Amino acid sequence: VYTPGYAISADAMEQNGISAREKNGQEAVAVWDGQEDAISMALNAVSALLQRHVPDPLVIGRIEVGTESNVDMAKSIKSYIMDLMPKQHVNVEGVDVCYGATSALLNTLAWSRETGRYGIIVATDTADTDIQDSAWRGASAVAMLVGPCPWNEIHPERSSCFKNTHDFLKPRNCSQTTPHMKTKESMNHYLDALDSTVNQMRNDHAIDPSS
After folding, report:
1. How many Cα atoms sit within 13 Å of 108 on the Cβ side?
2. How far is CA 123 from CA 16, 55, 57, 67, 206, in A?
3. pTM higher than 0.70
4. Which tens digits make up the pLDDT trace of 68-89?
5. Is 203 left (phi over 0), alpha (psi -120 to 50) or beta?
6. Which of these, 63, 98, 104, 175, has the minimum number of CB atoms within 10 Å of its CB?
7. Residues of 168-183 as b/e, b for ≥16 C-beta within 10 angstroms?
C-alpha cells in the first residue's frame, strides 16, 4: 500500500465549514502534492511489492491497473510500471481497465489459473474535488501479487451487478472539479447492488456470503 505523506485533518475541514467527522466519520483525507499523481503512486506501491515479495521480477507475466485517474491520455499507467521490470523482460501482458481494480483482479486471476504464472494488480486513484468538497478527496495506491499457491485463495464462484445509473457524473470539460453527485441515491444504488450480488451467490452457487 502507498498513501501520500500529506493529509487534511477532519478538524481543519470542520473549522472551514466542510462536514467530515460528523457526517462521514473521518479523521482525515489523504492529499497529494504537485510531484505526485496516480502514476507515481502506482510506481511506489509496485516497487515496494517487488522489493518485499518478488526476488525475481522475471516471474511476473502480467500487470493490470485499475484506475479512473490516468494522467497521460496517450498511454496506460501499465506502460510506466514497466520501468520497474528488467529492460529485457517485455513479455508482460495486461493494460489499464477503467472500471476499477476488481476487474483487473478477476482478469488476472483467470489468466493466472490458465498459465500458472504470477501477475500484479494495481489499484491507484486521485479523487480530486473543489475545496468546499474536500471531505470527498483522497489518494492512494495498492499493488497485489496473484499466482499459484496463494496465501489467501479467491474462489472462482462470483456474481455481478452492473447498471447505468445517474447519481454520479464528471464531464470531461466541466468547470466544476467535484463530480456532480446525488449522494443518498448513490448509496442506495450501492446497497441495491450488494443485495443483488448476495442473492445471486445464494441462488446460482448455493453460497451464503454471511457464512
Report:
1. 32
2. 31, 22, 19, 6, 31
3. yes
4. 888 888 899 999 999 999 999 9
5. alpha
6. 175
7. eeeeeeeeeebbeeee
